[in-house]
Design brief:
Rossmann fold; 11 strands; alpha/beta; four-stranded mixed beta sheet; about 40% helix
Length: about 260
């Protein structure tokens, strides 16, 4: 088989896989959709050059669809890492002209994000209260999974530390609340919030004054499939729209 024949065969397999994934998603309503959507996202990236979404599991594609491909929106990207790898907001910034704030406490990743993103970047961690806290920086291994020591999900941290590549250090970082970041950054009502803080999502949301901010869409990492996150969101006027990888995507219900 020639290289060209192999490429044709691989492409045919990917096309068939994409059809199968779309078919499975039509009937699947559980959290299994998250992994299926991630796979569909990856396959589509391979097959369709015009598919420019850059998130890990299609979160940005879902947000873009929910916002009717709106231009000029606003975002808050919490745990934005280097601003590029698996970013939920890069596409919106580059191709829809959105503006916003990216939050990343790890110095090396903050510097990378600041160098490549147009949006404002803040070197802080999100927590229920503003102040200072210990932060576990994963230096080798699962480097995208750094988080506050006080709220890091225990099961997830064990998985991270079991990686043979793992190396970490504990930093003292400044912490700020979600609400404080929104207000001081001039974004009291962002269209979209991406919240990925390795187990700290629940405490951050419990401390968030939903009534004071009009956020239209949230993508919230929920690695442990916690029932508390959907409970918080439902009680504050949001409906679960989709699962994308480990994330739950919520949209604010219309008033009335």
């Amino acid at each position: 088989m020639t290289p060209q024949d192999r490429l044709r065969s691989i492409r045919a397999d990917l096309v068939e896989l994409r059809k199968d994934l779309i078919g499975t998603l039509k009937d699947e309503r559980s959290r299994k959709r998250g992994e299926l959507n991630r796979q569909l996202h990856e396959v589509t990236q391979m097959l369709v050059p015009q598919y420019l979404y850059s998130s890990q599991a299609g979160q940005d594609a879902v947000v873009d669809r929910l916002m009717n491909h709106r231009t000029g929106g606003t975002f808050l990207d919490i745990g934005g890492y280097d601003g590029v790898s698996g970013s939920n907001t890069l596409f919106l910034e580059q191709y829809r002209g959105w503006t916003g704030v990216l939050v990343e406490p790890v110095p090396a990743q903050f510097e990378k994000a600041s160098a490549v993103r147009r949006c404002q970047c803040l070197q802080v961690a999100v927590a229920p209260t503003s102040g200072e806290a210990d932060f576990i920086e994963v230096q080798e291994g699962y480097t995208q999974m750094s988080g506050l020591a006080q709220s890091y999900d225990e099961g997830l941290l064990k998985t991270v530390r079991d990686d043979p590549r793992h190396k970490e250090q504990v930093l003292k970082v400044e912490t700020r609340t979600l609400s404080d970041i929104m207000i001081t950054s001039g974004l009291p009502d962002p269209d979209f919030v991406s919240l990925d803080i390795e187990g700290g999502e629940i405490t951050a949301l419990e401390a968030f004054p939903f009534a004071q901010h009009d956020v239209k869409i949230w993508s919230i990492e929920n690695n442990s499939a916690s029932k508390r996150i959907p409970e918080i969101m439902r009680d504050n006027g949001y409906e679960l729209i989709e699962f994308c990888g480990p994330d739950d995507v919520y949209r604010k219900r219309p008033a009335g």
